[in-house]
């Protein structure tokens, strides 16, 4: 998608430069190499400023989304991951049906991120099975897991800051197929429009992702994940750094996502939020599941209370103590 003048200038340079350097024949290769290094260091984005056509999104009447899948969407059995002598996750079982929200909580270092990374293919589990939408994906590469119907957001927001909001969402459309080998179609643009509407970012479509507020960036990550039409979505600490208003909006968004029939797995330190949005909660400590069940049972569970209260002077512990009463 480079600009036409840029291509012409590049062609002239490639054809003319050898002629110009004819007099210094033996140093030609060296001069070329030096030029290349200088360009890579000084203008990694290219010598000629590229101009991209902004995406034109269609105006769509809001319509209720279809349920993307039904039944058992995520089934994890006996998942373990060891790092040398450390067992980060041990024998984790998790099942999730369409439209359910399940949260994985636990003190720092409990194994939540490692579990997420095993499920999404970022790291290979030592043992265990992971089935997404009926497809066995344990140990598969992240793009294969995505193709089975799993999308995720990241604890540390990972957006393409030099792209627009709409372009960031569009990338999500290519997560499930052969990526850039596929041509952009009208359905992709419609999906981008719907996802932006869904998270309330339609008006920001042409803005740079870097210009968004923190809460908006979190919502953009969710829109990008939804653009892949996932059966299961994993949200990694979506409320981290959010203010109370943003947390309230996030709870509404999670409820909307589940209404689409998408299964949601949440890692979250905000225990109050977890207790209010989850159907079930799994609590990890030192990689092991110490409790699993509906929020009301978890709140009463003595092992959970002890696991959190066993960490003095930890702000998370104080919050959990408050929520668990
Ligand atoms: N790549 C790794 N190599 C060695 N040990 C690791 C690695 N990744 C995680 N661990 C260890 O595994 C354990 C679980 O870590 P993990 O990051 O999964 O916990 P967590 O519950 O996500 O913590 P947090 O809430 O702080 O993000 C910790 O003891 C950690 O030190």
From TrEMBL:
GO BP: any one term: D-alanine transmembrane transport
Organism: Actinomadura barringtoniae
A molecular function (GO) term: ATP binding
Domain ABC transporter as annotated: residue spans: 74-311
Coiled coil: none
Listed GO CC annotations: plasma membrane
Keyword annotations from UniProtKB, A to Z: ATP-binding, Membrane, Nucleotide-binding, Transmembrane, Transmembrane helix, Transport
Domain of life: Bacteria
InterPro entries: AAA+_ATPase, ABC_AA/LPS_Transport, ABC_transporter-like_ATP-bd, ABC_transporter-like_CS, BCA_ABC_TP_C, P-loop_NTPase
SMART domains membership: AAA
Membrane spanning residue stretches: 32-50
Protein name (Swiss-Prot/TrEMBL): ATP-binding cassette domain-containing protein
């Amino acid at each position: 998608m480079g600009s036409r003048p840029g291509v012409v200038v590049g062609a002239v340079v490639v054809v003319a430069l050898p002629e110009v350097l004819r007099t210094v024949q033996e140093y030609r290769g060296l001069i070329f190499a030096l030029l290349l290094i200088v360009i890579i260091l000084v203008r990694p984005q290219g010598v000629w400023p590229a101009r991209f056509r902004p995406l034109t999104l269609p105006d769509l009447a809001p319509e209720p989304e279809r349920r993307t899948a039904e039944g058992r969407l995520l089934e994890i059995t006996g998942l373990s991951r060891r790092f040398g002598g450390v067992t980060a996750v041990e024998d984790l079982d998790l099942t999730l049906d369409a439209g359910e929200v399940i949260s994985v909580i636990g003190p720092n270092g409990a194994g939540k991120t490692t579990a997420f990374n095993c499920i999404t293919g970022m790291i290979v589990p030592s043992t265990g099975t992971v089935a997404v939408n009926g497809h066995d994906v344990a140990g598969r590469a992240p793009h294969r897991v995505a193709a089975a119907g799993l999308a995720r957001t990241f604890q540390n927001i990972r957006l393409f800051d030099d792209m627009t909001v709409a372009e960031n969402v569009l990338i999500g459309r290519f997560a499930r197929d052969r990526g850039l080998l596929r041509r952009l179609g009208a359905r992709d643009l419609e999906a981008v429009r719907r996802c932006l509407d869904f998270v309330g970012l339609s008006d920001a479509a042409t803005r740079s992702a870097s210009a968004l507020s923190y809460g908006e960036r979190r919502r953009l990550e969710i829109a990008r994940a939804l653009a892949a039409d996932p059966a299961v979505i994993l949200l990694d600490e979506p409320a981290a750094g959010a203010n109370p208003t943003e947390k309230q909006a996030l709870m509404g968004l999670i409820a909307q996502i589940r209404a689409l029939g998408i299964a949601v797995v949440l890692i979250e330190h905000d225990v109050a939020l977890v207790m209010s949005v989850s159907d079930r909660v799994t609590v990890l400590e030192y990689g092991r599941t110490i409790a699993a069940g509906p929020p009301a049972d978890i709140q009463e569970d003595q092992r959970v209370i002890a696991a959190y209260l066993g960490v003095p002077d930890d702000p998370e512990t104080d919050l959990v103590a408050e929520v668990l009463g």
